[in-house]
Amino acid sequence: MNNSQQIQQKYQKNINSICLFCGASSGNNPAYTNKAQEFGRLIAEKNVKLVYGGAQVGLMGIVATAVIKNGGKVVGVIPKFLSNIEIVHPKLSETIFVPTMHERKEVMFDLSDTIVVLPGGFGTLDEFFEVLTWKQLNLHKKNIFLMNINEFWTPLVTTIDHMINEGFVKYSNRSLIHVIQEPDEIFI
Ligand code: AMP
After folding, report:
1. What is the pLDDT of residues 58-105, one digit of tens each?
2. Cα(5) to centroid of ligand 1, in Å?
3. What fold characterizes domain 15-187?
4. Is residue 109 a contact partner of residue 133, using CB atoms and an 8 Å limit?
5. Ligand 1 atom 7: residue of nearest CA
6. For ligand 1, atom 17, which residue shows the shortest CA distance?
7. 79 CA closest ligand 1 atom index
């Protein structure tokens, strides 16, 4: 094992706070909501703080509710203008109101040591690619997990492999993303 793998392993074992990016919708297959609940339970069991977008809606709301129900800590970060549209979760340990979407992403990133991406839409993709490109530029070393519930991310992973094959993404950058199937793979 080389030095960077050792650091990576050490880092993974010391997860204190997870930044969650995922849909403001829940999808139309119960697999998404079931896995989101399981993930929330596990976060609470592992005594890890959840940092997320602060809303009650969608998969994000489901994970947050599961963490809270199981006695865990949740910090929500939400722009003021969105707090009516996305409905702030009423039971959070802490809610941080920020002025803009950009600040939301920055605060969520700063408060966490690990990034986990569940299925979602445009917002989730925006958030995922921002932290991924920061990592590509060596601006951070936080692990980024793409949870491939119901093979949701497989077409995206295929597109990323296509980008590599066509010479637009470095092969070595493929390892910046950890594609996982189950929530507990984050803690291995
Ligand atoms: P979505 O994946 O589109 O359901 O959105 C998931 C979350 O991302 C929601 O909380 C949105 O408010 C947020 N979001 C949407 N667009 C953006 C954006 N351009 N930058 C950052 N977050 C966004």
Report:
1. 999 999 999 999 999 999 999 999 988 889 999 999 999 999 999 999
2. 32
3. Rossmann fold (3.40.50)
4. no
5. 123
6. 123
7. 12
pLDDT tens by residue, 94-108: 999 999 999 999 999
Residue ranges of the chain with per-residue pLDDT less than 50: 1-11
Say whether pTM exceeds 0.85: yes
Q: Does residue 99 have its Cβ closer than 6 Å to ligand 1?
A: no
Confidence at residue 13, expressed as pLDDT on a 0 to 100 scale: 60
- Tell me the DSSP string of the chain: --HHHHHHHHHHHT--EEEEE--SS--SSHHHHHHHHHHHHHHHHTTPEEEE--BSSHHHHHHHHHHHHTT--EEEEEEGGGTTTTTB-TT-SEEEEESSHHHHHHHHHHT-SEEEE-S--HHHHHHHHHHHHHHHTTS---EEEEE-GGGTTHHHHHHHHHHHHTTSS-GGGGGGSEEESSGGGGG-
Residue nearest to atom 5 of ligand 1 (CA): 123
Distance of CA 168 from the midpoint of ligand 1 (Å): 26
**Which of 20, 84, 102, 124 has most ligand 1 atoms within 8 Å of its beta carbon, as the pocket-test mutant?**
124
Ligand 1 geometric centre to CA of 3 (Å) = 36
Residue nearest to atom 13 of ligand 1 (CA): 123
Q: Rounded to an integer, what is the distance from CA 23 to the centroid of its chain?
A: 10
